[in-house]
Amino acid sequence: MRIDKFLSNMGVATRTESSRAARQGGILVNGVAVKKADVHIDPEKDIITYCGRKIEYRKYTYILMNKPDGVVSATEDGRDRTVIDLLPEELQKLNLFPCGRLDKHTLGLVMLTDDGDLAHRLLSPKHHVKKKYRFESKFPLSDDEIEYLEKGATLEDGYVTKPSRIELFEDKRSGYITLTEGKYHQIKRMLESVNNKITYLERITFGPLALDEKLARGEWRFLTQNEIDELEKHK
Questions:
Q1: Which of 24, 30, 75, 106 would you call most buried, defined as having the most Cβ atoms within 10 angstroms of its Cβ?
Q2: 40 and 153 both lie in a single domain
Q3: Are residues 30 and 11 in the same domain?
């Protein structure tokens, strides 16, 4: 693998930045400075230092994104921008995909990765990974409706949802809802089952991950090693 590709994949530097650093003697391979960033390395064996910092090799890439309105959770789309389109060009070239989907107009936490095995485990129904959302509804929710939704709502196609948890705010029209499954438009359909309508929806947690308040809509960052370790516990 070329050094510039390695540094790009690790989220350390763009290829342009890598070339500049190499010319300035800022990239070391096993302690020896290289003058060009197109030198090939073995990322699992060679020790790479970039501007004084040792760069650890990661086989997979994990990204936390704050999805904005109007962007679809897909790798490509013929009409709308996707979460992949929000990434820099270097990362768009990787085989990243969203781990689970948010609806086009749902905001908040999306994880992108190229780790298919981990994504499969996190999305598998048997693991019951919790997902928490901040919501607002058109009409207030009664105590009876809350109890019905929490125990399991019957959707229009006859599917009965798994138990959920709803924490309602004082206005009775907003709060938090926590699910352990992710059926198509599930929260929207759950509210429709009690003749109500979702007017705002934002995912704030996915398993052990929490939406980073420092990220503006459309912004992203790599997961920390601690966050990756917590995700790996879902086996």
A1: 106
A2: no
A3: yes
Contacts of residue 97, Cβ cutoff 8 Å, sequence gap at least 6: 75, 84, 112, 113, 114, 119
The number of C-alpha atoms within 13 Å of 93 and in the hemisphere containing its C-beta is 11
Instruction: Count the domains in the chain.
Output: 3
Can you say whether the dihedral through the CA atoms of 103, 108, 109, 114 is positive or negative? positive
Question: What confidence tens digit (pLDDT) does each residue in 113-124 have?
Answer: 999 999 988 988
pLDDT in tens, 81-103: 999 999 988 788 888 999 988 99
Tell me if residue 207 falls in helix, strand or coil: coil
Query: Which structure tokens are listed for 18?
Result: 């890598």
Q: Which CATH number goes with the domain that contains 25?
A: 3.10.290.10
pTM of the model: 0.83
Asked if 100 and 153 sit in the same domain, the reply is: no
- Tally of CA atoms within 13 A in the half-sphere of 17 that contains its CB: 11
**What is the Cα–Cα distance from 149 to 130, expressed in whole angstroms?**
16
- Residue 35: which domain range? 3-55
DSSP label at residue 125: G
Question: Is the distance from CB of 187 to CB of 178 less than 8 angstroms?
Answer: no
What the block records as the tokens of 66 is 């704050």
Is residue 198 domain-shared with residue 138, that is, in the same domain?
yes
